From TrEMBL:
Keyword Coiled coil: yes
Sequence similarity: Belongs to the short-chain dehydrogenases/reductases (SDR) family.
Stretch list, region Disordered: 185-264
Top-level taxon of the source organism: Bacteria
Official protein name in the record: NADP-dependent L-serine/L-allo-threonine dehydrogenase
InterPro entries: NAD(P)-bd_dom_sf, Sc_DH/Rdtase_CS, SDR_fam, TPR-like_helical_dom_sf, TPR_rpt
PROSITE patterns: ADH_SHORT, TPR
UniProt TPR repeat ranges: 303-336
Acidic residues bias (residue ranges): 189-205, 213-248
Signal peptide: none
Keyword annotations: Coiled coil, Oxidoreductase, TPR repeat
Keyword field contains Oxidoreductase: yes
Organism per entry: Saprospira grandis (strain Lewin)
GO molecular-function term, one example from the UniProt record: oxidoreductase activity, acting on the CH-OH group of donors, NAD or NADP as acceptor
Length: 737
C-alpha cells in the first residue's frame, strides 16, 4: 500500500505527537520515516514534516538535520509544538515554543552560545577518546549561535501551523503539500506488529554526536574585496543562491535579505505585535523627484515594502531614493541590522567622500547589532582601509574577525597586506601563508615576492610543503604566541583594557594586581574568549619589593623572557593644598607611582638587556606635564615618571631596549573613586563632559608597542576631545557619547 515516504523530524520529547501521526496514517499510502540522517535528507527530494519544539531547538542532532535543509526550505512543512520538560517535582510540564520576536530568537542564540562555552570547558577536561566528539559539538554550537536567528526567520517565513490546528484539520495541510487528495487505507486494520514495521529511525537524543561540516554549507558569507565579487557570486553556499531558491516559494512569502558572500543575516530588534502578510511585488516609485519620494516614503510603515523599494531603486541606480528608503526603515526600527549594513554599503559604493564618515557610523551600528559577525568586521576593515588608511584600526577589526571565524582566509590575506605596509614582514608572511593554506587559490607569484616566500621550482602541494599540522591550534598559532607581556594594575581600568587588547593579538600575558579574585575572573574571561591564550596571574602590591621578588620567582622558566613591560599601576589619593595634605596619602602615591615602577623595571630590565630587545611602557599622566591646583604630590610623582622614562631611554637604547611614556588626560575608570576614598558624590567628575575610555588608552598602548623594532615612540600625550590641557575642559555636556 505505501506509495509515499514522508520524512519526519522530531525529538523524543514529542514522541506522543509522532505516534498520533503514525496512528492516523497507519495502513495508508503514506509511510512515515522518522528522523532520517542529514545525508539521507540531502539525497532526497521529498517534503519534510518538521515538528518544531523548544526541545528540538536545543538538540544537537536535531539541529544538524534541520541545517541540512536550509538551502531547500521549500521542502519543509513546519509545525509548532510545545516542548516538554520535568519540573523540580519530576512532573512533566509543557513549554511554549516561541520564535517570533527578536527577544525570543535571542533566547536560543544565548542557549547555543552558552553551550559553546560549556563545551570549551569540557574540552579541557575531556579524556583523549572524547576530544573528537566534543570538538565537533563545540564547532557546531559556535556556528549555530550565529546562525540560529537566520534559521528561525526562514522557518517563520513558511507560516508554521500550531499542532492543535494541524491535528484538528486531520493534517489537511500535509496532505495538500504532498499532493494527496484522499487518504486511502486498507479495509482491515493493521495489527500492532504491522504498525511497528513502519520505518522509524531512533529518536534524537539531546547529547547526539555532531558532524563538523553540517553548518558549513549554509554559513552566510562576507562581502569580499570588490575585485573578487564576480567570482564569489558563484560560490556554492552564498546567500544569493539561497535567495534564488527561495524565489520559488509562495508570492506572499516575506522577502529575505539580499546578502553577499560571507555576510551573516543580521537580526532586527523591532518587535512586531502581529505578523502581517506583505505582498512581495516590486514597488517602483513613479515620481523620481526626491521630495515627492520622501513624502511618499513617510507614509509607508511596512518594513518589507520599504526593503523592496530600497532594493529596487538600488538595482535601477537611483541611489538617493534607495537611501531615503533605508533611512525610513531606521526611523521605524533604529536597530535594524539589515538596513544598517546595506545603507553603509550604499554610501560606501555610490556616494561621494563627504558621506563616508556617515557610512563608517552605520558600519559601527551594524556591528553593535550583530557583534558576532566576522563578515561585518572584515567589511568594515576594508572600508576603513580604502577610505581612511587607518592601518591600526584595520588590524584590530581583522583580528576580531579572525577570533570569530578562524577559517576566514580573506581576513588573513587582508591582515597580511596591512602588516606588510607597517613593515611587519614576518607577521605578514605568516598570515599570507595561513590564507594560502585555507584557500590555495589565493597563492600568487607577486604576493610570494612581496612576503619573501621562497618556493621550490617543482611546487609541492602547499600543505605538504609546510608540513601542515593536524591540530587547529597549531595552524592558527598567533605570530606573537611566544612573546610575553607583563601588565601591572591589570585588575581594572586601563590595565584590564590593555590585557584584552594584547589577548586579541595572541600574546602571552602575565597579569598582576593586588586583588587576586579580580585577576582570576579576568583570566577566566580571557580564556573563554581566546581559546589558545596563555595567561599567568601574580597577586602582589607594587609598593612591596619582597612581594614582587617572590611573585616573579613563581613564574615558570618558559615565561621568564618578558618582552613587554607595561608599568600601569598607579593612583591618586586625596586632593588639597600642600599645607593640608595627608602624609599617608603622599607616601601611598610616591610608593605606588614611582617606587613601584622602579622595583618592576629594576627586576625585569636586566632580562631585556641580556636578550638585546624589549619594551618598557610607562603610563604617566598630563599631570606630569602640567601641574594643577591641589594636585601637588600626584603631579610630582607623574613628573618624576616622565623624567625617569627619559633617563631609562638614555640608559637602555644601546641594548636595543625601547622605552616609552604615554600620558593620558582624564580617563573614566576607578581613578576618581580611589582618589576620594570611595565617595561617589565627589567622584562624579566626568558627568559634564566626555572623557577618554580605558579602551582608548589601551589601543594607544598597543599601537606604540606594535611598531616595527626600528621605531620608538618615546613620549605621547592623549586627550579627550573636550579636554585641551590639564585644567582646561569644556564642561558643557557630554558631546561624544
Amino acid at each position: 500500500m505505501p506509495q509515499y515516504q514522508l520524512p519526519v523530524l522530531y525529538v523524543a520529547a514529542n514522541s506522543e505527537e509522532f505516534q498520533r501521526l503514525q496512528h492516523f496514517f497507519a495502513g495508508s499510502q503514506v509511510q512515515l520515516v522518522a528522523n532520517p540522517s542529514p545525508q539521507q535528507l540531502e539525497n532526497s527530494e521529498e517534503k519534510v514534516l518538521l515538528l518544531l519544539s523548544d526541545n528540538f531547538l536545543k538538540d544537537h542532532l536535531a539541529m544538524q538535520a534541520l541545517s541540512s535543509l536550509m538551502l531547500e526550505t521549500e521542502r519543509i512543512l513546519p509545525i509548532i509544538l510545545n516542548g516538554r520538560q520535568k519540573d523540580v517535582n519530576g512532573q512533566i510540564i509543557e513549554t511554549p515554543t516561541q520564535t517570533k520576536t527578536i527577544h525570543e530568537l535571542m533566547r536560543y542564540r544565548d542557549f547555543w552560545h552558552e553551550e559553546w562555552i560549556r563545551l570549551r570547558k569540557a574540552n579541557r577536561e575531556a579524556a583523549a577518546d572524547e576530544l573528537e566528539e566534543i570538538e565537533a559539538k563545540k564547532l557546531f554550537a559556535k556556528r549555530l549561535s550565529t546562525n540560529i536567528g537566520s534559521f528561525l526567520r526562514k522557518i517563520n517565513a513558511l507560516s508554521p501551523s500550531p499542532w492543535a490546528d494541524f491535528e484538528a484539520s486531520e493534517f489537511s495541510r500535509l496532505l495538500q503539500a504532498i499532493d494527496i487528495t484522499a487518504l486511502q487505507k486498507s479495509e482491515e486494520k493493521e495489527t500492532e506488529e504491522e504498525q511497528a514495521e513502519i520505518e522509524e529511525a531512533p529518536e534524537i537524543e539531546v547529547e547526539s554526536r555532531a558532524e563538523e561540516e553540517i553548518l558549513e554549507a549554509e554559513s552566510p558569507e562576507e562581502t569580499p574585496l570588490e575585485e573578487k565579487e564576480a567570482e564569489e557570486e558563484q560560490a556554492e553556499n552564498s546567500v544569493e543562491e539561497i535567495e534564488e531558491e527561495e524565489k520559488t516559494a509562495e508570492e506572499k512569502e516575506p522577502m529575505e535579505a539580499v546578502e553577499e558572500e560571507k555576510v551573516e543575516e543580521i537580526p532586527t530588534v523591532l518587535e512586531k505585535e502581529e505578523e502581517k502578510e506583505v505582498a512581495t511585488e516590486k514597488v517602483v516609485l513613479e515620481d523620481e523627484n526626491l521630495e515627492a519620494a520622501q513624502e511618499y516614503l513617510t507614509e509607508v510603515r511596512s518594513l518589507d515594502a520599504l526593503f523592496v523599494i530600497a532594493e529596487t531603486e538600488t538595482e535601477e541606480a537611483d541611489y538617493e531614493v534607495a537611501r531615503l528608503a533605508y533611512e525610513r526603515i531606521l526611523v521605524l526600527d533604529p536597530s535594524n541590522g539589515r538596513a544598517l549594513i546595506w545603507l553603509a554599503r550604499l554610501l560606501d559604493r555610490h556616494f561621494e567622500e563627504e558621506e563616508q564618515q556617515l557610512a563608517q557610523e552605520y558600519y559601527k551600528k551594524a556591528i553593535f547589532v550583530n557583534e558576532e559577525s566576522a563578515a561585518l568586521y572584515y567589511e568594515y576593515a576594508l572600508h576603513l582601509r580604502k577610505r581612511f588608511a587607518s592601518l591600526f584600526r584595520v588590524n584590530e577589526l581583522l583580528h576580531r574577525a579572525l577570533e570569530i571565524d578562524p577559517q576566514y582566509e580573506l581576513a588573513y590575506l587582508a591582515l597580511a597586506d596591512c602588516q606588510a605596509k607597517q613593515g611587519q614582514i614576518e607577521a605578514a608572511r605568516a598570515n599570507y601563508l595561513q590564507a594560502c593554506l585555507l584557500n590555495p587559490e589565493l597563492q600568487a607569484e607577486e604576493l610570494d615576492q612581496l612576503y619573501k616566500v621562497i618556493r621550490p621550482e617543482e611546487q609541492k602541494p602547499l600543505a605538504e610543503e609546510l608540513q601542515l599540522p593536524e591540530s587547529e591550534e597549531e595552524i592558527l598559532r598567533s605570530p606573537h604566541a611566544e612573546e610575553v607581556v607583563f601588565i601591572t594594575g591589570a585588575t581594572s581600568g586601563i590595565g584590564r583594557a590593555t590585557a584584552w587588547q594584547f589577548a586579541r593579538a595572541g600574546y602571552r600575558l602575565v597579569l598582576t594586581g593586588r586583588r587576586a579574585a579580580c585577576l582570576e575572573e579576568l583570566s577566566e574571561q580571557l580564556r573563554e574568549n581566546f581559546e589558545q591564550l596563555e595567561v599567568q596571574t601574580l597577586s602582589f602590591d607594587v609598593r612591596n619589593k619582597e612581594e614582587i621578588d617572590a611573585a616573579l620567582a613563581k613564574l615558570p622558566e618558559s615565561w621568564s623572557n618578558i618582552d613587554i613591560l607595561i608599568n600601569n599601576a598607579g593612583l591618586a589619593k586625596g586632593r588639597g593644598p600642600i599645607h593640608e595634605g595627608k602624609i599617608e596619602d603622599w607616601e601611598t602615591m610616591i610608593d605606588t607611582n614611582l617606587k613601584g615602577l622602579l622595583y618592576l623595571s629594576r627586576a625585569i630590565s636586566p632580562i631585556m638587556v641580556q636578550n638585546k630587545k624589549g619594551f618598557i611602557i610607562n603610563i604617566g599622566s598630563i599631570a606630569g606635564k602640567e601641574a594643577y591646583s591641589d594636585g601637588n604630590v600626584y603631579c610630582a610623582t607623574k613628573a618624576a615618571l616622565d623624567m625617569l622614562t627619559k633617563g631609562m631611554r638614555l640608559d637602555l637604547h644601546r641594548y636595543g631596549v625601547r622605552v616609552a611614556a604615554i600620558h593620558p588626560g582624564h580617563v573614566e575608570t576607578e581613578f576618581a573613586l580611589v582618589r576620594f576614598d570611595g565617595d561617589e558624590e565627589k567622584a562624579k567628575i566626568y558627568d559634564d563632559f566626555t572623557p577618554l575610555r580605558a579602551e582608548d588608552v589601551a589601543e594607544t598602548i598597543f599601537f606604540v608597542a606594535s611598531r616595527p623594532e626600528r621605531v620608538n615612540i618615546q613620549d605621547l600625550l592623549l586627550f579627550a576631545n573636550q579636554q585641551a590641557s590639564a585644567a582646561v575642559i569644556d564642561r558643557s555636556g557630554k558631546k561624544f557619547e
